[in-house]
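Worked example

This section walks through a single chain of length 52. The input is the sequence exactly as stored; nothing has been trimmed or padded.
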Amino acid sequence: MTRGNYSSIPVTWGAAGAVAVIALAPWLAALGVIAGIVTRCTVEVEKVRERI
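Given that input, the structure is written out below as tokens.
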């Protein structure tokens, strides 16, 4: 480890991690929807207009 570097990760590991996250994102979203339906959660969305 050289001065100023806290960690050294090969670029291929970073690329593989990014691909894994992108590939898992739809599954995680679907899992969140299923969990919300099963637990009967309610989601409220409020729109707030900001005065300029």
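What to look for: The helical segments are 11-38.
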